[in-house]
Amino acid sequence: MRPGLGIALTVLATLCFAALDTVSQYLGPAVPVLMMVWLRYLTQAGLTAALLLPQHGRALLRTRAPHWQLLRALLMVTSNTLAFLSLRHVPVGEFTAVMMLAPLAVTVLAALLLGERVRPVGWALVAGGLLGALLVVRPRGGGFQAALLLPLLLVLANAGYQVVTSRMVRTEHPGTTHFYTGLIGLACCTLALPWGWAPMAEGRLWALAALVGALGSVGHYLLIRAYSLAPAARLTPFLYCQVGFATLAGWLAFGHRPDGWAWLGIGLIALCGWLGARRRG
User: Which of 66, 78, 108, 110 has its CA 20 to 30 A from that of 154?
Assistant: First the structure.
Protein backbone atom coordinates (compact mmCIF):
# COMPACT_ATOMS: atom_id res chain seq x y z
CA MET A 1 0.00 0.00 0.00
CA ARG A 2 1.20 3.51 -0.91
CA PRO A 3 -1.57 5.84 0.32
CA GLY A 4 0.28 9.05 -0.55
CA LEU A 5 0.56 8.09 -4.21
CA GLY A 6 -3.03 6.81 -4.18
CA ILE A 7 -4.27 10.19 -2.92
CA ALA A 8 -2.25 12.03 -5.59
CA LEU A 9 -3.68 9.83 -8.36
CA THR A 10 -7.20 10.38 -7.00
CA VAL A 11 -6.79 14.16 -7.11
CA LEU A 12 -5.43 13.94 -10.67
CA ALA A 13 -8.42 11.78 -11.63
CA THR A 14 -10.85 14.39 -10.28
CA LEU A 15 -9.01 17.04 -12.30
CA CYS A 16 -9.50 14.91 -15.44
CA PHE A 17 -13.22 14.49 -14.71
CA ALA A 18 -13.73 18.21 -14.05
CA ALA A 19 -11.98 19.04 -17.33
CA LEU A 20 -14.08 16.40 -19.12
CA ASP A 21 -17.35 17.91 -17.86
CA THR A 22 -16.22 21.45 -18.73
CA VAL A 23 -15.30 20.50 -22.31
CA SER A 24 -18.57 18.54 -22.61
CA GLN A 25 -20.57 21.60 -21.57
CA TYR A 26 -18.69 23.72 -24.09
CA LEU A 27 -19.45 21.22 -26.87
CA GLY A 28 -23.10 20.76 -25.85
CA PRO A 29 -24.67 23.27 -28.26
CA ALA A 30 -22.57 22.08 -31.23
CA VAL A 31 -22.37 18.28 -30.95
CA PRO A 32 -25.34 15.87 -30.62
CA VAL A 33 -25.38 13.83 -27.41
CA LEU A 34 -25.21 10.47 -29.18
CA MET A 35 -22.13 11.52 -31.12
CA MET A 36 -20.48 12.72 -27.92
CA VAL A 37 -21.10 9.38 -26.22
CA TRP A 38 -19.94 7.45 -29.29
CA LEU A 39 -16.72 9.44 -29.60
CA ARG A 40 -16.10 9.02 -25.87
CA TYR A 41 -16.30 5.22 -26.17
CA LEU A 42 -14.37 5.12 -29.42
CA THR A 43 -11.48 6.88 -27.70
CA GLN A 44 -11.74 4.77 -24.52
CA ALA A 45 -11.84 1.48 -26.40
CA GLY A 46 -8.90 2.51 -28.58
CA LEU A 47 -6.74 3.71 -25.71
CA THR A 48 -7.54 0.69 -23.53
CA ALA A 49 -6.72 -1.75 -26.34
CA ALA A 50 -3.49 0.08 -27.19
CA LEU A 51 -2.27 0.27 -23.58
CA LEU A 52 -3.49 -2.98 -22.03
CA LEU A 53 -3.61 -5.59 -24.82
CA PRO A 54 0.18 -5.58 -25.38
CA GLN A 55 0.70 -5.92 -21.64
CA HIS A 56 -1.86 -8.64 -20.84
CA GLY A 57 -2.50 -10.32 -24.20
CA ARG A 58 -5.44 -12.72 -24.38
CA ALA A 59 -5.70 -12.77 -20.59
CA LEU A 60 -7.34 -9.34 -20.86
CA LEU A 61 -10.31 -10.96 -22.63
CA ARG A 62 -11.00 -13.62 -20.00
CA THR A 63 -14.02 -12.92 -17.83
CA ARG A 64 -15.89 -15.08 -15.35
CA ALA A 65 -18.96 -12.84 -15.33
CA PRO A 66 -19.99 -11.83 -18.87
CA HIS A 67 -23.54 -10.94 -17.73
CA TRP A 68 -22.18 -8.56 -15.08
CA GLN A 69 -19.82 -7.05 -17.66
CA LEU A 70 -22.80 -6.39 -19.93
CA LEU A 71 -24.89 -4.88 -17.14
CA ARG A 72 -22.04 -2.66 -15.96
CA ALA A 73 -21.38 -1.42 -19.49
CA LEU A 74 -25.07 -0.62 -20.10
CA LEU A 75 -25.27 1.30 -16.83
CA MET A 76 -22.14 3.21 -17.83
CA VAL A 77 -23.65 4.12 -21.23
CA THR A 78 -26.79 5.31 -19.47
CA SER A 79 -24.73 7.37 -17.03
CA ASN A 80 -22.67 8.98 -19.81
CA THR A 81 -25.77 9.84 -21.85
CA LEU A 82 -27.50 11.40 -18.84
CA ALA A 83 -24.30 13.30 -17.98
CA PHE A 84 -24.06 14.92 -21.41
CA LEU A 85 -27.77 15.76 -21.33
CA SER A 86 -27.48 17.21 -17.81
CA LEU A 87 -24.57 19.45 -18.75
CA ARG A 88 -26.80 21.17 -21.30
CA HIS A 89 -29.02 22.46 -18.51
CA VAL A 90 -26.98 22.59 -15.28
CA PRO A 91 -23.69 24.54 -14.78
CA VAL A 92 -20.65 22.29 -14.47
CA GLY A 93 -19.88 23.18 -10.83
CA GLU A 94 -23.40 22.45 -9.59
CA PHE A 95 -23.59 19.34 -11.79
CA THR A 96 -20.44 17.96 -10.19
CA ALA A 97 -21.75 18.68 -6.70
CA VAL A 98 -24.93 16.71 -7.38
CA MET A 99 -22.80 13.83 -8.72
CA MET A 100 -21.17 13.64 -5.29
CA LEU A 101 -24.47 12.17 -4.07
CA ALA A 102 -23.49 8.87 -5.70
CA PRO A 103 -21.87 7.33 -2.56
CA LEU A 104 -25.02 8.14 -0.57
CA ALA A 105 -27.20 6.67 -3.34
CA VAL A 106 -25.11 3.50 -3.15
CA THR A 107 -26.20 3.26 0.50
CA VAL A 108 -29.85 3.29 -0.59
CA LEU A 109 -29.37 0.72 -3.36
CA ALA A 110 -27.34 -1.56 -1.11
CA ALA A 111 -30.20 -1.51 1.39
CA LEU A 112 -32.91 -2.10 -1.22
CA LEU A 113 -31.14 -4.60 -3.50
CA LEU A 114 -28.56 -6.31 -1.30
CA GLY A 115 -30.43 -6.20 2.03
CA GLU A 116 -27.65 -4.33 3.82
CA ARG A 117 -28.68 -2.70 7.10
CA VAL A 118 -28.53 1.10 7.19
CA ARG A 119 -28.58 2.85 10.56
CA PRO A 120 -30.76 5.94 11.16
CA VAL A 121 -27.73 8.23 10.88
CA GLY A 122 -27.07 6.79 7.42
CA TRP A 123 -30.59 7.63 6.29
CA ALA A 124 -30.19 11.12 7.79
CA LEU A 125 -27.05 11.67 5.69
CA VAL A 126 -28.89 10.50 2.56
CA ALA A 127 -31.74 12.94 3.31
CA GLY A 128 -29.27 15.77 3.94
CA GLY A 129 -27.46 15.09 0.67
CA LEU A 130 -30.75 15.02 -1.25
CA LEU A 131 -31.77 18.35 0.29
CA GLY A 132 -28.44 19.80 -0.80
CA ALA A 133 -29.00 18.52 -4.35
CA LEU A 134 -32.45 20.13 -4.50
CA LEU A 135 -30.92 23.45 -3.43
CA VAL A 136 -28.34 23.15 -6.20
CA VAL A 137 -30.74 22.28 -9.06
CA ARG A 138 -33.69 24.42 -7.91
CA PRO A 139 -35.38 26.52 -10.62
CA ARG A 140 -33.94 30.04 -11.02
CA GLY A 141 -36.55 32.45 -12.28
CA GLY A 142 -37.61 30.48 -15.35
CA GLY A 143 -40.00 28.08 -13.63
CA PHE A 144 -39.57 24.34 -13.15
CA GLN A 145 -37.88 22.38 -15.94
CA ALA A 146 -37.96 18.59 -15.99
CA ALA A 147 -34.39 18.64 -17.35
CA LEU A 148 -33.22 19.81 -13.91
CA LEU A 149 -34.00 16.32 -12.60
CA LEU A 150 -31.57 14.69 -15.05
CA PRO A 151 -28.59 14.91 -12.64
CA LEU A 152 -30.63 13.07 -9.99
CA LEU A 153 -31.45 10.28 -12.47
CA LEU A 154 -27.76 10.20 -13.34
CA VAL A 155 -26.87 9.72 -9.67
CA LEU A 156 -29.14 6.65 -9.49
CA ALA A 157 -27.64 5.16 -12.67
CA ASN A 158 -24.13 5.85 -11.40
CA ALA A 159 -24.91 4.30 -8.02
CA GLY A 160 -26.17 1.15 -9.75
CA TYR A 161 -22.95 1.07 -11.75
CA GLN A 162 -20.92 1.29 -8.54
CA VAL A 163 -22.92 -1.47 -6.82
CA VAL A 164 -22.35 -3.78 -9.80
CA THR A 165 -18.65 -2.87 -9.86
CA SER A 166 -18.29 -3.69 -6.17
CA ARG A 167 -19.56 -7.22 -6.87
CA MET A 168 -17.30 -7.70 -9.89
CA VAL A 169 -13.99 -6.73 -8.27
CA ARG A 170 -14.04 -10.03 -6.38
CA THR A 171 -13.47 -12.06 -9.55
CA GLU A 172 -12.63 -9.69 -12.42
CA HIS A 173 -9.33 -8.03 -13.30
CA PRO A 174 -9.72 -4.19 -13.40
CA GLY A 175 -8.17 -4.03 -16.88
CA THR A 176 -10.60 -6.64 -18.21
CA THR A 177 -13.57 -4.76 -16.79
CA HIS A 178 -12.33 -1.45 -18.21
CA PHE A 179 -11.79 -3.06 -21.62
CA TYR A 180 -15.25 -4.65 -21.84
CA THR A 181 -16.97 -1.51 -20.59
CA GLY A 182 -15.42 0.46 -23.44
CA LEU A 183 -16.00 -2.25 -26.05
CA ILE A 184 -19.67 -2.89 -25.19
CA GLY A 185 -20.34 0.84 -24.88
CA LEU A 186 -18.81 1.44 -28.30
CA ALA A 187 -20.91 -1.36 -29.84
CA CYS A 188 -24.16 0.01 -28.37
CA CYS A 189 -23.45 3.57 -29.48
CA THR A 190 -22.35 2.47 -32.97
CA LEU A 191 -25.66 0.62 -33.48
CA ALA A 192 -27.60 3.76 -32.47
CA LEU A 193 -25.34 6.20 -34.34
CA PRO A 194 -27.41 6.37 -37.59
CA TRP A 195 -30.20 8.04 -35.59
CA GLY A 196 -27.93 10.65 -34.02
CA TRP A 197 -25.25 11.45 -36.59
CA ALA A 198 -24.65 15.06 -37.58
CA PRO A 199 -21.77 16.43 -39.66
CA MET A 200 -19.09 18.44 -37.86
CA ALA A 201 -17.20 20.59 -40.31
CA GLU A 202 -14.71 22.00 -37.81
CA GLY A 203 -11.71 19.85 -36.95
CA ARG A 204 -11.57 21.64 -33.60
CA LEU A 205 -14.88 20.04 -32.57
CA TRP A 206 -13.60 16.57 -33.46
CA ALA A 207 -10.43 17.18 -31.47
CA LEU A 208 -12.33 18.40 -28.39
CA ALA A 209 -14.78 15.48 -28.59
CA ALA A 210 -11.82 13.07 -28.74
CA LEU A 211 -10.32 14.90 -25.75
CA VAL A 212 -13.49 14.12 -23.77
CA GLY A 213 -12.96 10.42 -24.39
CA ALA A 214 -9.27 10.61 -23.51
CA LEU A 215 -9.93 12.49 -20.26
CA GLY A 216 -12.58 9.94 -19.25
CA SER A 217 -10.36 6.96 -19.99
CA VAL A 218 -7.32 8.41 -18.23
CA GLY A 219 -9.40 9.50 -15.23
CA HIS A 220 -10.94 6.07 -14.73
CA TYR A 221 -7.58 4.36 -15.15
CA LEU A 222 -6.02 6.67 -12.53
CA LEU A 223 -8.83 5.78 -10.11
CA ILE A 224 -8.30 2.07 -10.71
CA ARG A 225 -4.60 2.52 -9.90
CA ALA A 226 -5.41 4.68 -6.86
CA TYR A 227 -7.71 2.05 -5.36
CA SER A 228 -4.97 -0.54 -5.79
CA LEU A 229 -2.63 1.63 -3.68
CA ALA A 230 -4.89 2.80 -0.83
CA PRO A 231 -8.17 1.80 0.88
CA ALA A 232 -11.35 3.28 -0.59
CA ALA A 233 -12.28 4.97 2.71
CA ARG A 234 -8.92 6.80 2.66
CA LEU A 235 -9.44 8.05 -0.90
CA THR A 236 -13.17 8.90 -0.93
CA PRO A 237 -12.86 12.33 0.79
CA PHE A 238 -10.42 13.46 -1.91
CA LEU A 239 -13.03 12.82 -4.63
CA TYR A 240 -14.65 16.06 -3.46
CA CYS A 241 -11.72 17.95 -4.99
CA GLN A 242 -13.68 17.57 -8.22
CA VAL A 243 -16.32 20.02 -6.95
CA GLY A 244 -13.66 22.69 -6.45
CA PHE A 245 -12.00 22.02 -9.82
CA ALA A 246 -15.35 22.04 -11.65
CA THR A 247 -16.58 25.22 -9.95
CA LEU A 248 -13.31 26.98 -10.83
CA ALA A 249 -13.50 25.72 -14.42
CA GLY A 250 -17.12 26.88 -14.74
CA TRP A 251 -16.09 30.35 -13.57
CA LEU A 252 -13.06 30.57 -15.88
CA ALA A 253 -14.72 29.05 -18.97
CA PHE A 254 -18.28 30.36 -18.71
CA GLY A 255 -18.19 33.13 -16.10
CA HIS A 256 -20.64 31.22 -13.89
CA ARG A 257 -20.48 31.52 -10.10
CA PRO A 258 -22.92 29.61 -7.86
CA ASP A 259 -25.25 31.80 -5.79
CA GLY A 260 -25.61 31.58 -2.00
CA TRP A 261 -28.27 28.84 -2.02
CA ALA A 262 -26.22 26.76 -4.47
CA TRP A 263 -23.12 27.12 -2.26
CA LEU A 264 -25.21 25.98 0.71
CA GLY A 265 -26.36 22.93 -1.25
CA ILE A 266 -22.81 22.12 -2.39
CA GLY A 267 -21.56 22.36 1.19
CA LEU A 268 -24.37 20.15 2.48
CA ILE A 269 -23.69 17.47 -0.13
CA ALA A 270 -19.95 17.53 0.62
CA LEU A 271 -20.50 17.36 4.38
CA CYS A 272 -22.97 14.46 4.19
CA GLY A 273 -20.79 12.57 1.70
CA TRP A 274 -17.65 13.09 3.79
CA LEU A 275 -19.38 11.93 6.97
CA GLY A 276 -20.75 8.92 5.12
CA ALA A 277 -17.25 8.03 3.91
CA ARG A 278 -15.89 8.30 7.48
CA ARG A 279 -18.60 5.99 8.77
CA ARG A 280 -17.84 3.38 6.13
CA GLY A 281 -14.13 3.69 6.87
Answer: 66
